[in-house]
Amino acid sequence: MGRSRRPEGKCRLCGINGPLSWEHVPPEAAYNDHRVVRATQEQILKPELWDGRRGEISQRGSGGYTLCEPCNNNTGDWYAREYVRWAKQALDRLANIPSGEQLPFYVPFTGRPLRFLKQVVTMFFSVNSEKFADIHPELVKFVLDRSSRGLPPKYKVNLVLVRGGFVRSSGVSASINVASGTSDVASEIAHFPFALRLLFGDVNSLRMGPIEHFADFELDQKGEVWLYTEVGDVTTKFPGDYRSRERVDREAIVNADGGMEKDE
């Protein structure tokens, strides 16, 4: 039996039509090498919580046929290894944080911040439509031009540490923070150990782990950076929601009782 032909389409980064290669989001070595179950569009739109058991199964991890081979190979060579190094540091940080702890704190990372940020931005092309690159040429240049530094102020990037749970991603949309009641226009990638949000325009919610200033580093400049962020969980299908399963269940009971805590 011959090899199956790769799907063809428009590369979501450079825009060239042709064969597409599988892009792991996040990189495969960043704990993305196992079976995942994706919620279908119908499941995402339903109001009840998705149980994570039924959906579209991917045996090779989270990702898709989104980039042409040159873009996949180049960005992987330029940036992906740096992302993996940061993911391994995050695993060490999480091991020292008590289970259930979610209060904001400062966490250190060492490495090449610009390369890490460029990989983060690269990933957002794969979770958005083909039109994303046309709408945001500044981000295309930021990724494909290794020497490019700085991001326009209309782009902001948040990083939160997450313990695990579901894998979640969403294209650009207006998302509501269920905890604060605020809304922002954002795209999200949440996969252990990072939940990343690319925000557009004015930001209304309280920000945790801003990293867009990483764009001011040189490509090979090493440094130690301290991020003011929090630890959360990927429990629900709602973008920007990092509540633990215990908190989600507790608040569901409170809401069912008319918003009143029980006095026992």
Q: Which spans of ≥5 residues are poorly predicted at pLDDT below 50?
A: 259-264
Number of helices: 6
Number of strands: 12
Q: Tell me, what's the shape?
A: globular
Order of helices and strands, N to C? EEEHEEHEHHHEEEEEEH
- Overall SS class: alpha+beta
The strands making up the biggest β-sheet line up spatially as 8-9-10-7-12
- Distance between the terminal alpha carbons, to the nearest Å? 67 Å
Structural write-up:
The protein has 264 residues and is α+β, with helices and mostly antiparallel strands. The protein has a domain at 79-256. The protein is 27% helix and 29% strand. The strands form 4 sheets. A 5-stranded mixed beta sheet has the order 8-9-10-7-12, with helices on one face. A hairpin with a 6-residue loop joins strand 8 and strand 9 (183-191). The termini are far apart.
What is the topological layout?
Layout (H helix, E strand, L loop, with lengths): L7 E3 L6 E8 L11 E3 L2 H5 L10 E3 L4 E6 H27 L9 E7 L1 H14 L4 H5 L1 H8 L10 E11 L2 E9 L6 E9 L2 E7 L22 E7 L1 E4 L10 H12 L8
Parallel strand pairs: 7-12
Antiparallel strand pairs: 1-2, 2-5, 3-4, 6-11, 7-10, 8-9, 9-10
Brief rundown of the structure:
This protein is an alpha+beta fold and 264 residues long. It contains six helices and twelve strands.
